[in-house]
Amino acid sequence: MTDHPALALEGVGLRIGGARILDGVDLAVPSGELLGVIGPNGAGKTTLFNVVSGLIAPTAGRVRLNGDDVTRMPVHRRAVAGLGRTFQTSSLFGALTVLENVRQAAQARLGGASSVLRRPRGADAATTRAREALEEVGLAHRAGQQASGLAHGEKRKVEIAMLIAAEPSVILLDEPMAGVGSGDVPAITEVIRQLHRGGRTVLMVEHHMEVVLGLATRVAVMHHGELLAAGTPEDVMANPTVQQAYLGEAV
Ligand SMILES: Nc1ncnc2c1ncn2[C@@H]1O[C@H](COP(=O)(O)OP(=O)(O)OP(=O)(O)O)[C@@H](O)[C@H]1O
């Protein structure tokens, strides 16, 4: 298994009507990489994440998770197989507490029945895992608070704690800095850095270039549904084709 990339896209294409939304995307993401996915608006970045997570079926090519072909696997089974993702907008249950939100994610991973049958004294396994995940993102002190009352930046951290609790092997972060005030950017950057340091494989779509260049071990550039370039942040930013794609856009 270790010979396989954590995630591989092989000739992935998506046509909707006459439009080519994704075209021949080949990409191998080795285990432990933090890949920044960038590109101008409408380049196909979110669509690519939707294909990887199973929300959209590609019309060509394959998606492999740790070597296994998951192209036709539904979203929930892909999650169980080890794929986790966040969305541009918050996916928290506002009426639940922070701990309850993270606990749901841990419970989904552990499975309901076993934890009911074998409930450790005091706190069950899902609660313990949820508390550890909140600790990891520095939000243990918010555990009992209702999620709707959190600041936006804290909600982002709770979403990352939910990912940690679900223990995915590959994580997709879709614009983690979207809507985040500049004051919260460094703290969330640090949480993502920690997430990656734990040995997890992370793909991150992000427009905030400072964040991408500061975190990514490799950068992939999408343009008109194609993978234009992939390489170290330095190489990619020095690539004339990439600079051309961004003409008229803020890089
Ligand atoms: N279901 C759909 N039907 C038709 N066109 C679609 C559909 N989904 C996406 N598109 C088109 O595909 C292209 C890629 O969209 P996508 O949202 O993936 O781009 P993006 O790179 O994530 O953009 P942004 O940075 O603005 O979020 C866009 O031109 C979009 O209008």
Automatic annotation (TrEMBL):
GO terms for cellular component: plasma membrane. It comes from the Bacteria. The keyword ATP-binding applies. InterPro entries: AAA+_ATPase (IPR003593), ABC_AA/LPS_Transport (IPR051120), ABC_transporter-like_ATP-bd (IPR003439), ABC_transporter-like_CS (IPR017871), BCA_ABC_TP_C (IPR032823), P-loop_NTPase (IPR027417). Residues 7-249 form the ABC transporter domain. Keywords: ATP-binding, Nucleotide-binding, Transport. Gene3D superfamilies: P-loop containing nucleotide triphosphate hydrolases (3.40.50.300). One of its GO terms (molecular function) is ATP binding. SUPFAM superfamilies: P-loop containing nucleoside triphosphate hydrolases (SSF52540). PANTHER family: ABC TRANSPORTER ATP-BINDING PROTEIN, CONSERVED COMPONENT OF ABC TRANSPORTER FOR NATURAL AMINO ACIDS-RELATED. This is ABC transporter ATP-binding protein. It comes from Agromyces archimandritae. The lineage of its organism: Bacteria, Bacillati, Actinomycetota, Actinomycetes, Micrococcales.
